[in-house]
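User: Predict structure, ligand alpha-D-glucopyranose.
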Amino acid sequence: MRRLATSLVVLAGIILGLGGAVAQTQAKPGKLDPWWKHALIYEIYPRSFQDSNGDGVGDLNGITQRLDYLKELGVDAIWLSPIYPSPQVDFGYDVSNYEAIDPQYGTMADFDRLLAEGKKRNIRIIMDMVMNHTSDKHPWFIESASLKTNPKRDWYIWRDGKGPGEPPNNWQSTFGHSAWKWDPKTSQWYYHRFYAEQPDLNWRNPAVERAMFGVYRFWLNKGVAGFRLDAVPTLFEDAQLRDEKVLPGTNAYGDPNLDDSMTNNLPEVHQVMRDLRKVTNSYPGNRVLIGETYLPDIAELRKWYGADHDELQLPMDMQVGFLNKLDAEMFRTRIDQAEHDLDDDQPLFVFDNHDNVRSWNRYGDGNHNTAIARIIATLLLGTRATAMMYYGEELGMTTTPPTRVEDVRDPIGKIGWPKEKGRDGERTPMQWDGSPNAGFAPASATPWLPVPSSYKTVNVAIESREDDSLLSWYQQLIKLRRDHPALHDGTLTMLNVNDNNVLSWLRKAPDGQAVLIVCNFTAQPQTVAFDLSSQGVSGRQLKALLQSPGMDESQSLSSVKLPPYGVYIGQVQ
Ligand code: GLC
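Assistant: Predicted complex:
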């Protein structure tokens, strides 16, 4: 499963081009690996990446301008957060037309150019597919809301209330308060898992599946490499609309906590995933399905690959990246689970996205943040998982939330202020250089969110010049992962499993080359020794491939000396 002819994959890619007729391959020994198995997927939040026309909002042409940066970093695919026409209540996750481009991001011609320029650089485009809900301004919903007898009425979830002014049940929106909105015109309530402007589609209606699958085909025909499925575990709700169980305490919006059992991760979703996989499999080029799958444990995650490996290729593993505690033992357990409990399917790790406080803030201790960020990068890129990054993660961009409620753009920040400040803080403009507006937008523009003051030192221009920068660490690690057979394809074995201060593992290529990775999870220096005799590794010497700044070059298996939060990556020879 892990030792395949990568050079052949590269060659096939060159000969056939992206989206060319590379046969659908299962990741089995002796066959070509699909491209996504070794990929680095980079999430771009289009509003915030690069503004090319000076309106303060990032756009498609801006992304195209920056493709060379992504190429140099080693990105294989871009996941584009939604760029479809949208009233922008949830900044694009409220789609009013799935087959067009919102004018503030550009035109379809701009999109086609991005796709073509990406292809020239071997960078694929993955679309964000919002399938749980549409915007309330989508023509489907406008029709559905127009009359109880409209043919599209049943495309959404309309119900009578329990009594006057009383919603059908106790379900709540993820974004606060009741998940039901009263419609005085037709005297019924509709269900919205997210904002009221995002009515849920009724996936029990086959016409909905047909319409949405038409949308997938539209983009697959254009040549996109696959989809990131937004909020996909919430596609179905209990058909009988039973109340959820009330748990102790209240959430950030002051609502009672509920157990989520009637609205999240219902088994019906798996048939849709199988149907969808059939659609993507009917296209050449190993199109990929990625899921936004926040799930309680690895057993639930396993289900999303399908009992017959016929659902998603890459449901996101949120168990590792959102552990939110720098705890060596817990990371060891979770990484091991991804190794052993996914039935040989491919894990996808992610530490950052547009919905969560950045890993810099979640894992940093305030004193050693850059060193800790190197550990995070190593966990992401030094294991066997497919890797997913979020723009600016490679720089150490920080979450910078608004300080006044009147500056908040993300509506949940207004609903939940001050406990929930919303997601603006992790969506601030990309920090390209030290010029006004950080190179994100012309100096004369007003960026849609303020550029954090850290841009003067934390930016691409400065970090590209500094050998010890976080960006340089990412670049070197990504290159090693691509070029070194042990890191590219090798098996993974945890070492020194009783050590709760230092997390270490071995990557071993089929040809026997072995790489040792050692991360100090503490603020104290640590010295560790390794006995690799039981790992079938005969070498006794270590040759450094990458190590934290200031570390001694000469390390040995009997004594690897690490500074606080230091990382050592070395070849055993
Ligand atoms: C997903 C998106 C998030 C959005 C929500 C509703 O969780 O990542 O940004 O608000 O779905 O579409």
